[in-house]
């Protein structure tokens, strides 16, 4: 196949000014990495001018600045709204340099002015205590993507473009990042971006050939091979390559002009003639040397164009006079005296190259998160389940949530700002009511023999995002949220661990972003985990794992929340709250299978507001009775733990009515730690009110027991909490056998309670024997009949 490399025509545009602008950005990048004094080299460079620790990354920076400068050119020519996403790790100094050059940085951080003192602050703050990181983090104006953990840039860019017509998201992808699994999956974006209603993503795959200490796969492949790869995913790529700046400037400008014209033509055609399949969005493959314009050789070894330029090409500047001389020559090669005036400002002819106002990529609306329009949540009374008689109504817990999400889609049809993201499991997770309002989004046409029917709910206009990748679903949603819209990511519980690291990174972003007054709060990352470990008995051990709870519990309490609603009405109340919230990671864990329903909607609201409460109807304490408190507290968090706890408490009261039993349900896991650990933590007085001051507590917990012990650390006498939870025992078996295998069944909880009661009670030994005999009978029965005992299957809570 003939290569599509762009060849510049003779007599084209003069890029002398743009090249100087690029030099200014490169100069400021090097200055940030190395200097703590003398920012414009107004005097000879001395060891005292060099930072004692050199921590930056040079190799990817000149490529980022080259792309940034050319995008500025495109914006000035077209007035396009462009969001810049920098995928390469440690590209921070290059992007900060460009944001500073176009003036936004000084507007947001007035102390970093566009003069010599401001330049000094700019260089001194980079990778120093109290300064800025080497990533394009929350503190960088215009950024929605940090680029620290590689792989997520293109999916964030795609999510940002969804329901954002007019926006072009320019996404620079490093060839190291291109080796990651999430980025490989991200190339599927053309199958989901609708040119009639979405913005556009312009991928710019920057192949400089090397990672931190070795070559990259795509860097070694031919132009033809890389183009074929992108073309197979639905893109229309062109390649720009070279090491002659003037030729590359001409070629890159031509490529960007052509890409912009193509984007607008595709969108115009879609608006005029409709969408009849995926379109071939343009993409640019840019090959330039790693560390371009930096030192060619250092200590006899090649640097420019090799992995040696990745971090700090000249590492011994303070101690090595030769390195010092090379650094000064390198920096003076950019001719800073021609770039900045006597006051330290960018000279006027170069400053004029930057876009103005909100057209600057560092000031574009989408890059600040945007206050966004709040979601109008319908009245929950339309979806609430009547639980009466309490505990005897059996219903799929997540199905009413699907009806609520359906009506949110309907309410936002004319102002799209909500999407559900789910890895091919929307119906499986009982959220299928959304298909009454919209379809699954897919632009790929049906093939002969597919027998596609309207009830399959697949169309280019759909706004339910299903793709069999947790990374893509969560990454798309993150990009969608960070640009001001709302959504929900629903996943099977065990497989949410696929994107657990993304959850960590997003929480870190929010934690820092909350400290920046200029960043608008963004809608929360809402993660719904269903098909949980306790009810994946049919799928087996591979589908059983509550680990994301542990992951989220370990993150900063300023941005994390974990909810375990026990029934459908508490789930509805939780959904209403999280969809209105901003700047949080909300983890909601609830099973999709039929479960008993316990609380009215009003009770659910009260319970959710408290986070944990005594279910007096499930115990046998006399209201207002004075005394030493209950003989035992039976506590629970999660739907299956709640069911087993209620059954254990019911059996205990039935067989030993003289024992006083209290049942406590915990819906918000974050009320358990002290308030200095998490802002939701209940007061010491409230904790004692629920769990007593020194009484024994039998706790059934949805996840790993260690996670609950972690939450209780700092509470008085935490050793009195005897926690049963998931302990990595599972297989393909019956529902009740899952709790038996993990020793969290009603019988195990009851036996634990009998062990912890501090007084002798007639009949206790007989009840313990009954529990053991039931466990033995269970094991025999399921092997013979392949289902649970009738007294287990058919049990419902009834008043004593």
TrEMBL record:
Keyword Lyase included in the entry's annotation: yes
Required cofactor(s): thiamine diphosphate
Xylulose 5-phosphate/Fructose 6-phosphate phosphoketolase N-terminal domain span: 14-370
InterPro entries: THDP-binding, Transketo_C/PFOR_II, Xul5P/Fru6P_PKetolase, Xul5P/Fru6P_PKetolase_C, Xul5P/Fru6P_PKetolase_CS, Xul5P/Fru6P_PKetolase_N, Xul5P/Fru6P_PKetolase_ThDP_BS
Name of the protein: Phosphoketolase
Record family assignment: Belongs to the XFP family.
Xylulose 5-phosphate/Fructose 6-phosphate phosphoketolase C-terminal domain ranges (all copies): 592-797
PANTHER family: PHOSPHOKETOLASE-RELATED
Naturally occurring in which organism (per UniProt): Arthrobacter ramosus
Record's keyword terms, sorted: Lyase, Thiamine pyrophosphate
């Amino acid at each position: 196949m003939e290569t599509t490399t762009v060849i510049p025509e003779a007599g084209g545009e003069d890029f002398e000014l743009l090249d100087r602008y690029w030099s200014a950005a490169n100069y400021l990048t090097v200055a940030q990495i190395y200097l703590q004094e003398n920012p414009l080299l107004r005097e000879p460079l001395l060891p005292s001018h060099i930072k004692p620790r050199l921590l930056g990354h040079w190799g990817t920076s000149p490529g980022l600045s080259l792309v940034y400068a050319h995008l500025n050119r495109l914006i000035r020519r077209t007035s396009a709204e462009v969001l810049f996403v920098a995928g390469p790790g440690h590209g921070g100094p290059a992007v900060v340099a460009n944001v500073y050059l176009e003036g936004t940085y000084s507007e947001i951080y007035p102390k970093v002015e566009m003069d010599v003192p401001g330049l000094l602050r700019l260089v001194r703050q980079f990778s120093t205590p109290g300064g800025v990181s080497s990533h394009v983090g929350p503190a960088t104006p215009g950024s929605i993507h940090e680029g620290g953990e590689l792989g997520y840039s293109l999916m964030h860019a795609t999510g940002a473009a969804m329901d954002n017509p007019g926006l072009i998201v320019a996404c620079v992808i490093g060839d190291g990042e291109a080796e990651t699994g999430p980025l490989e999956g991200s190339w599927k974006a053309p199958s989901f971006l609708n040119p009639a209603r979405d913005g556009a993503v312009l991928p710019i795959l920057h192949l400089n050939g090397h990672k931190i200490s070795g070559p990259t796969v795509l860097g070694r492949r031919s132009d033809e091979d890389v183009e074929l790869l992108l073309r197979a995913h639905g893109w229309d790529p062109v390649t720009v390559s070279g090491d002659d700046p003037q030729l590359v400037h001409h070629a890159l400008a031509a490529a960007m002009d052509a890409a912009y014209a193509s984007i607008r033509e595709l969108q115009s055609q879609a608006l005029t003639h409709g969408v009849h399949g995926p379109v071939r969005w343009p993409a640019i493959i840019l090959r330039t040397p790693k560390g371009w314009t930096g030192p060619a050789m250092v200590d006899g070894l090649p640097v420019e164009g090799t992995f040696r330029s990745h971090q700090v090409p000249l590492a011994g500047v303070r101690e090595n006079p030769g390195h010092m001389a090379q650094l000064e020559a390198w920096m003076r090669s950019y001719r800073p005296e021609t770039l900045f005036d006597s006051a330290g400002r960018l000279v006027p002819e170069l400053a004029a190259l930057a876009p103005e106002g909100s057209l600057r990529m560092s000031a574009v609306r989408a890059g600040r998160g945007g206050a966004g329009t709040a979601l109008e949540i319908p009245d929950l009374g339309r979806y609430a389940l009547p639980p009466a008689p309490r505990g005897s109504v059996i219903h799929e817990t997540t199905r009413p949530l699907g009806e609520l999400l359906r009506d949110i889609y309907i309410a936002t049809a004319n102002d799209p700002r909500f999407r559900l993201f789910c890895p091919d499991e929307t119906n499986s997770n009982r959220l299928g009511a959304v298909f009454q309002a919209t379809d699954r989004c897919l632009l790929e046409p049906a093939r002969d023999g597919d027998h596609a029917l309207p009830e399959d709910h697949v169309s280019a206009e759909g706004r339910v995002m299903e793709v069999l990748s947790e990374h893509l679903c969560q990454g798309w949603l993150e990009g969608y949220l960070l640009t001001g819209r709302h959504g929900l990511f629903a996943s099977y519980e065990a497989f949410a661990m696929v994107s657990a690291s993304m959850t960590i990174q997003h929480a870190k972003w929010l934690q820092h972003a909350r400290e920046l007054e200029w960043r608008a709060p963004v809608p929360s990352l809402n993660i719904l985990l269903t098909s949980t470990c306790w009810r994946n008995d049919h799928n087996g051990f591979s589908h059983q794992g509550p680990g994301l709870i542990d992951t989220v519990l370990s993150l900063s309490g300023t941005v994390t929340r974990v909810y375990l609603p026990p029934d459908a009405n508490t789930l509805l109340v939780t959904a209403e709250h999280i969809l209105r919230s901003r700047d949080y990671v909300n983890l909601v864990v609830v099973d999709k299978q039929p479960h008993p329903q316990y609380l009215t909607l009003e009770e659910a609201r009260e319970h959710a507001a408290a986070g944990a409460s005594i279910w007096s109807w499930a115990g046998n304490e006399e209201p207002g009775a004075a005394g030493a408190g209950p003989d035992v507290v039976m506590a629970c968090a999660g739907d299956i733990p709640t069911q087993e706890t209620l059954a254990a408490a019911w059996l205990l009261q039935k067989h030993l009515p003289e024992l006083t039993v209290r049942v406590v349900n915990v819906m918000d896991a974050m009320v358990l730690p002290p308030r200095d650990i998490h802002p939701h933590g209940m007061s010491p007085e409230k904790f004692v009110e629920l769990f007593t001051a020194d009484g024994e507590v039998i706790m059934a917990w949805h996840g790993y027991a260690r996670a609950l012990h972690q939450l209780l650390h700092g509470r008085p006498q935490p050793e009195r909490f005897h926690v049963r939870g998931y302990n990595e025992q599972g297989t393909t078996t019956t529902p009740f056998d899952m709790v038996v295998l993990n020793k969290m069944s009603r019988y195990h909880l009851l036996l634990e309670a009998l062990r912890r009661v501090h007084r002798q009670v007639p009949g206790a030994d007989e009840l313990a024997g009954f529990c053991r005999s039931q466990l033995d009978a269970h094991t025999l029965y399921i092997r013979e009949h392949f289902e649970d005992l009738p007294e287990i299957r058919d049990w419902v809570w009834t008043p004593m």
